[in-house]
Amino acid sequence: MQTTLPAPLLILVASIGTLFQWIGDTFTHLFKNFTAESFRAKPSDSKDAVIITGASDGIGFEIAKLFARDGFHLIIISHDEQKLGAAKEELLNINKDIKVFPIVKDLTDKDAPKEIFEQVRGEEFESIHVRYLVNNAGKSYRGHFTRMDLDKQLELIDLNCKHIVAMTHLFGKQFEQELDQDPTQQFRIMNLSSVVSFLTTPNQTVYSATKSFIHAFTLGYGDEVAKYGGKLTLTALCPGFTETKLIDEIDAKNAVGYGTADKPERVAKIGYKGMMLGRRYIIAGYMNNLTYWFTSQLPVGLSLKFGKLVNADKDQLKNPIKLATKGITTDDGRNNEEISMQ
Questions:
Q1: pTM for this one?
Q2: Which domains, ranges and CATH numbers included, belong to the chain?
Q3: Strand ranges (DSSP E) for the chain?
Q4: What value does the mean pLDDT take over residues 69-96?
């Protein structure tokens, strides 16, 4: 005779199970964050190289420094030629035994990924072997959706999504073909997502949608290549607010969520370790891990209100009822600000 547990008891059991799962997941992520400082990687041979987009500053440049330190050759990509040249010099100062190839490209150009792919296959790059790809380039706009310029938001989608899909397709296909010929090799791809891939942030609506796309895309393709037994893995790096030059240039430090901002070098170390170990995704920062769990337990309506709170300016906290019911009110002068919340 079968017995059916009362509904309240089932809910209690499920809640306890969810709590223990969260405790396990959270401590796992926190442990990965804590041990990232001492992590080192080693090239499999003297030709190993990485491609990093958005590598002239911020998180991308900090990731490049870690690869340089550990002896990997680098192909660094940015639209800013001057910054790229300075980045090359600093990377060579870290390790004079590596090669650094700067490529100046605007990744909002739909042909840029194919041009990069073809260039890297040329004679200039015969002395290196690309085994790693970091799709880091991205941007954000902050403001009311319909008050912001449409072309700028479509450009944001091109940079945050289309170029990542194209680069991953081109180099992922090459990595798969190489593994089919020699299954002893190892390849890694990391895409820059964000903690907002788990939390929709009104007034950064398009940005948070692009990061949700990147997260889902990375997990999906990562599962497709699981047949290679960990020889080709994809990692989604999910930081929150990060201290970069763009945030200093605008007033993003006034946002409520900026109080938990991380240093780009710390985010880079966490992502670097997660990528090298083949993690599906890695949440950078202790508070971001807590935010991930907290918002996952909320109903959709409350989650959106929390997203509004995180993205609101601090002076709006003077009227929390208005903030919760009407959301963020930004004047027209703030509608097209770029925020490096990667």
A1: 0.81
A2: 13-338 (3.40.50.720)
A3: 48-53, 73-78, 100-104, 129-135, 141-142, 187-192, 232-238, 281-283, 337-338
A4: 97
